[in-house]
Amino acid sequence: MSGDLRAAVPLVLVGAGKMGGAMLAGWIERGLPANGVVILDPNPAPEMAALAAEKGLRLETTPPADVTAAVILIAVKPQVMDAVLPTLRGLIGPETIAVSVAAGKTIASIEAGLGARAVVRAMPNTPAQVGRGITACAANAAVTTPQRVLVTALLSAIGKVEWVATEDLIDAVTAVSGSGPAYVFLLAEALAEAGRKAGLPADLAARLARATVEGAGELMFQSPLDPATLRKNVTSPNGTTAAALAVLMADDALQPLMDAAVAAAANRSRELSAG
Ligand SMILES: NC(=O)C1=CN([C@@H]2O[C@H](COP(=O)(O)OP(=O)(O)OC[C@H]3O[C@@H](n4cnc5c(N)ncnc54)[C@H](OP(=O)(O)O)[C@@H]3O)[C@@H](O)[C@H]2O)C=CC1
Ligand SMILES: O=C(O)[C@@H]1CCC=N1
């Protein structure tokens, strides 16, 4: 295990759902010791209970009285945050770092609900499940440089990490990279449906669309070229791609649609801040 991660123990994960579970998988992969992790979830999924039993992780349904967290990672739904945070106060010591991944929940609301000094608001995404997420973070003034380093090490277990200068940027981060994987999956669905309408058997269209999105993502991952250059590399002069891109890149097509989608997600993030 990396020396950096050792300082995160005891690490309490509150909410072992899709996002919390993905993070847990990354930490275990990185060698965080099973006896250093406490999972807190009132109703863990059977797979999570099985994982805990297999790895020897401590799984609790109510906050344990004998733990002061070095790091508490809160991954419950935004709608239950205000009710859940006060129940976690017994886990917080003066040195505890609280990291919340809840969409829309502000640092101020987490400070107030939890009584923690050092608070990081983070926005990951589900490619974390395969170690290819990206998380952007904002910290309050109490977070020290070593604490930032520790949080970066923890979040690096599930992908790339960015820090933003001001918390208000997290709403736009949420709209781009937090929700963004869903837009890409929708693209795969829409491409498959368009292929079916163009005459392909539905299952073949689905396989072609899926492999195309997978391959394009992997190419972008491995290539030093920017997305625009990779796009141009597909586009033969006056060829088929140019014909399709003329539709997608028309003034009223994909860009304004994406602008509106991202603005809607960012607005929803701000609404969740209001409670
Ligand atoms: N999914 C995503 O792509 C992303 C999600 N997020 C954020 O992550 C958070 C979790 O989302 P997600 O993983 O999708 O949601 P899930 O519903 O999959 O996970 C939340 C988990 O928290 C559990 N829970 C509920 N109440 C408590 C409690 N009192 N103590 C401990 N655990 C509790 C839930 O149990 P039960 O199901 O029984 O209620 C569930 O297992 C949200 O705040 C979301 O905004 C951030 C970035 C991306
Ligand atoms: O949809 C949501 O609210 C969460 C936050 C970002 C991705 N999923």
From TrEMBL:
<keyword id="KW-0560">Oxidoreductase</keyword>
<dbReference type="InterPro" id="IPR000304">
    <property type="entry name" value="Pyrroline-COOH_reductase"/>
</dbReference>
<protein>
    <recommendedName>
        <fullName>Pyrroline-5-carboxylate reductase</fullName>
        <ecNumber>1.5.1.2</ecNumber>
    </recommendedName>
</protein>
<comment type="pathway">
    <text>Amino-acid biosynthesis; L-proline biosynthesis; L-proline from L-glutamate 5-semialdehyde: step 1/1.</text>
</comment>
<dbReference type="GO" id="GO:0055129">
    <property type="term" value="P:L-proline biosynthetic process"/>
</dbReference>
<comment type="similarity">
    <text>Belongs to the pyrroline-5-carboxylate reductase family.</text>
</comment>
<keyword id="KW-0963">Cytoplasm</keyword>
<dbReference type="InterPro" id="IPR028939">
    <property type="entry name" value="P5C_Rdtase_cat_N"/>
</dbReference>
<dbReference type="InterPro" id="IPR036291">
    <property type="entry name" value="NAD(P)-bd_dom_sf"/>
</dbReference>
<dbReference type="GO" id="GO:0004735">
    <property type="term" value="F:pyrroline-5-carboxylate reductase activity"/>
</dbReference>
<feature type="domain" description="Pyrroline-5-carboxylate reductase dimerisation">
    <location>
        <begin position="167"/>
        <end position="272"/>
    </location>
</feature>
<dbReference type="Pfam" id="PF14748">
    <property type="entry name" value="P5CR_dimer"/>
</dbReference>
<comment type="function">
    <text>Catalyzes the reduction of 1-pyrroline-5-carboxylate (PCA) to L-proline.</text>
</comment>
<feature type="domain" description="Pyrroline-5-carboxylate reductase catalytic N-terminal">
    <location>
        <begin position="13"/>
        <end position="104"/>
    </location>
</feature>
<dbReference type="GO" id="GO:0005737">
    <property type="term" value="C:cytoplasm"/>
</dbReference>
<keyword id="KW-0028">Amino-acid biosynthesis</keyword>
<keyword id="KW-0641">Proline biosynthesis</keyword>
<feature type="binding site">
    <location>
        <begin position="75"/>
        <end position="78"/>
    </location>
    <ligand>
        <name>NADP(+)</name>
    </ligand>
</feature>
<dbReference type="InterPro" id="IPR029036">
    <property type="entry name" value="P5CR_dimer"/>
</dbReference>
<keyword id="KW-0521">NADP</keyword>
<dbReference type="InterPro" id="IPR008927">
    <property type="entry name" value="6-PGluconate_DH-like_C_sf"/>
</dbReference>
<dbReference type="Pfam" id="PF03807">
    <property type="entry name" value="F420_oxidored"/>
</dbReference>
